[in-house]
Structures are given as structure tokens and as C-alpha cells.
Design a protein that fits this description.
Blueprint (H helix, E strand, L loop, with lengths): L2 H5 L3 E5 L4 H12 L3 E6 L2 H14 L3 E5 L5 H15 L4 E4 L14 H29 L2 E6 L12 H21 L4 E8 L17 H8 L8 H14 L3 E4 L1 H12 L5 H13 L4
Parallel strand pairs: 1-2, 1-4, 2-3, 4-5, 5-6, 6-7
Length: 277
């Protein structure tokens, strides 16, 4: 079965879909004749999507929603369900990145990172999952990160939340299959997405840090990543790690003790080099 045959006439909600990977996924879903709703807190981006894309693609729309606000999430999901009569797919993609040593993380920063990256997933899942159980079908795809599977010094809070998303997904998958609902997690490595431009930090000069990081590794195309994710959704895969270099890195880390030590040291040296005084 082709992607167009699989996604045609389905409905989907994509959180954090106004930019980057989320937008790429939402746009491709709508092009595959899947009625797609973007939930994103970026008001101007949502307005732009509705003005530009609704004219040429009535299968794509956006709504300003903060995934941390459970009431706002509930209202948006219920209205979409009442309008469409079903929800086939939920892609929990909304997230924020933050670079700082744990020593420089205040509790309010920890809370913000956990709220968006973990509680955002929990909020949306909690409101969509009962609908899927009642209708007898559906798929929930949680976008985690390679950081949730490997050490990621300087992004410990982010990695903590993403690791939780992975375990949430795999454990919930074991439950949800009894209701004909699929739950999957996606763990991307380094992608060419603007999440890095929007990365927060209290101490690190992030533009200079990422400029230096780019010299070490080449980011993987968001467009290619989106296609791989859609194919994984069609197959109802439990976990997708991408790109191939990320799979290889994960494999080596599992069989070679200390494999990540050199990379971790290089990363910490970069963070300290570009740490503001």
C-alpha cells in the first residue's frame, strides 16, 4: 500500500507543527489527502499557515495552542473531533531544546523543559487516547530524540524528558494494542531544523556553539526524515531511530563500553568554550 492510499481521508493532529519537523510532517500529511490540524503556540506562524496554505490546501490548518495548557488542548481536540467525526493520528512533536550544564539549571528551567517536552505529550495523549479507544482505532506518534537513548551532556534536562517520552511510548504501546491503537516513538538524531536556532540557554552562546557543532557533524534533511516517519507510521513501528548514522551510533554505544566518552568530552569542551562569563 502506498503512502497516499494509507493516509487518504484520514485525520491528524500535529503539535508543534508550525515550524521545522512538525510543519514538514503536517504539510506532507495534508498533501496525502489527510485532514491535518496543527497545534502550536506560535500565533504569527499559525496565522501565516492559515492565510497562505488554506487557499491552496484546504486539508491543512493551524490553531494557536500551548500544549502545556490542558484545558486549551482539550477544547481544540474536542472541536476537531466533533467536526471530523474521528481522529486517526496524533503526532506529539512540540518541544523545546535547552543547553546548559546542570550546575547552571534553575528549577524553573527544569520545569519548563519537562512541562513542554513531557507534559505536553501527556496532555495531548490523555485527551486523544480515549477517543481512539472508543472509536476502535488510531495511532499516537511521540517525537522523542536520540538524546533520550544516549548521553547528551549539556542537554541533561532535555534528554531526561525525551527518555521519559520513549518509555511512555513503549509501555503504553503494550496496553494500547488491546484497543487497536498503535503507539510509536521517533528518535531523530541531528536534523536540519530550526529547533537549534530557537534553543534556549542561560549561559551558553548558542549561535557560536551551533556554528562550531556544525563542523563536527552534518544535519540530516528534515524532508527526508518526514518521509521516513510517515513510512514508519504506515508500518506501525514501535520505534524509529534516524538517520542511519544515529542507528549506528546507538548500536556501537551498546556493544562498546565508553564509546560515547570521546564525543561527550568534545561536546562538553564546546559548551565550556562558548559559555558566557
Amino acid at each position: 500500500m502506498s503512502l497516499i492510499d494509507y493516509f487518504r481521508n484520514k485525520t491528524a493532529i500535529v503539535t508543534g507543527g508550525a515550524n521545522g519537523l512538525g510543519f514538514s510532517l503536517a504539510q506532507k500529511l495534508s498533501e496525502l489527502d489527510c485532514c491535518t490540524l496543527i497545534l502550536d503556540k506560535d500565533k504569527s506562524a499559525c496565522e501565516s499557515i492559515n492565510v497562505i496554505h488554506m487557499k491552496k490546501n484546504k486539508r491543512l490548518r493551524a490553531r494557536e495552542v500551548n500544549v502545556v495548557d490542558s484545558n486549551d488542548v482539550s477544547k481544540s481536540i474536542r472541536e476537531f473531533y466533533d467536526e471530523q467525526g474521528k481522529i486517526d493520528i496524533l503526532i506529539n512533536n512540540a518541544g523545546i531544546a535547552h543547553i546548559d550544564e546542570v550546575l547552571d539549571l534553575e528549577l524553573k528551567i527544569w520545569k519548563n523543559i519537562i512541562d513542554v517536552n513531557l507534559w505536553g505529550v501527556i496532555n495531548c495523549t490523555t485527551h486523544v487516547y480515549p477517543i481512539m479507544v472508543e472509536q476502535g482505532f488510531g495511532q499516537i506518534i511521540n517525537i522523542s530524540s536520540l538524546s533520550g537513548l544516549l548521553t547528551d551532556p549539556g542537554s541533561t534536562a532535555y534528554a531526561t524528558a525525551k527518555a521519559a517520552v520513549i518509555n511512555l511510548s513503549l509501555s503504553m504501546r503494550a496496553e494500547a494494542k488491546f484497543y487497536n491503537v498503535g503507539v510509536s516513538t521517533v528518535c531523530p538524531g541531528y536534523l536540519s531544523t530550526d529547533i537549534y536556532v530557537r534553543t534556549l540557554s542561560s549561559k551558553v552562546d548558542t549561535p557560536r556553539f551551533f556554528e562550531a557543532l556544525h563542523k563536527y557533524s552534518k544535519p540530516f534533511s528534515v524532508e527526508k526524515a518526514s518521509i521516513l516517519i510517515l513510512k514508519a507510521i504506515k508500518k506501525n513501528k514501535a520505534m524509529l531511530v534516524l538517520p542511519a548514522s544515529a542507528k549506528w551510533e546507538l548500536f556501537l554505544s551498546r556493544i562498546i563500553p565508553g564509546f560515547m566518552n570521546k564525543q561527550d568530552n568534545e561536546l562538553m569542551n564546546l559548551i565550556r568554550k562558548y559559555k558566557r562569563k
